[in-house]
Amino acid sequence: MAEEWTLFYWAAKSAGRAEFVRLLFEEAGVKYKEDNEDTLGKFFQGKIGSFQLSQTPVICRYLGKEFGLFPDKFEDEWHAEQFNLTLHDYIAEGRNSFHGINLIASYFTQEEETKPYIERFVKDRIPRYLKHFEQVLSLNNNGQGFVFGNKLTYVDLGLLHVLRATEAQFPDTWKEADYIPNLKAFQGKNRD
Ligand SMILES: N[C@@H](CCC(=O)N[C@@H](CS)C(=O)NCC(=O)O)C(=O)O
């Protein structure tokens, strides 16, 4: 029997960073299992046989290439990687704003104190990142297609996840954002 991937993540029910990787497995139709117990001391990891990999953006690039969800052109390959890292910077900043006082303590131990960090993220950082994502998407096929080239790649799935996370976490901000028409259409059309 072919070896199966294992995705290690601290939370089974939360989208979080694991969702980037789940979407790749789902899109490629590749079976995987999740291990949400054995994560002590591991940030995040994917494993097949004795091959293990951590760092979510690296896992995404690796699986994208492995599953053919990868740009065809050399320049697109590197622009996609640039975009991949920006998506993950955005997620990291968002996550850190909910842990403004203590990065590794639960949000619920710092709910009050972390409010200014979240407010700053909403006011300054979300628009800055979303405008950038809109600009990059709009450079290809007038923003009507994929982020790079003419096929779905790992960064389209990454973008989809961060947009869904933004809408879920900050519904009012998402609704009021009238400066990202192409992103909204992109997210809508990929809803299922
Ligand atoms: N750059 C890493 C960041 C991993 C990370 O920060 N994970 C979060 C949970 S999603 C965490 O709590 N890490 C533990 C820590 O920072 O001590 C990645 O993208 O995989």
TrEMBL record:
<dbReference type="InterPro" id="IPR004046">
    <property type="entry name" value="GST_C"/>
</dbReference>
<dbReference type="InterPro" id="IPR004045">
    <property type="entry name" value="Glutathione_S-Trfase_N"/>
</dbReference>
<feature type="domain" description="GST C-terminal">
    <location>
        <begin position="73"/>
        <end position="192"/>
    </location>
</feature>
<feature type="domain" description="GST N-terminal">
    <location>
        <begin position="5"/>
        <end position="71"/>
    </location>
</feature>
<dbReference type="InterPro" id="IPR010987">
    <property type="entry name" value="Glutathione-S-Trfase_C-like"/>
</dbReference>
<protein>
    <recommendedName>
        <fullName>Glutathione S-transferase</fullName>
    </recommendedName>
</protein>
<dbReference type="Pfam" id="PF14497">
    <property type="entry name" value="GST_C_3"/>
</dbReference>
<dbReference type="InterPro" id="IPR036282">
    <property type="entry name" value="Glutathione-S-Trfase_C_sf"/>
</dbReference>
<dbReference type="InterPro" id="IPR050213">
    <property type="entry name" value="GST_superfamily"/>
</dbReference>
<dbReference type="InterPro" id="IPR036249">
    <property type="entry name" value="Thioredoxin-like_sf"/>
</dbReference>
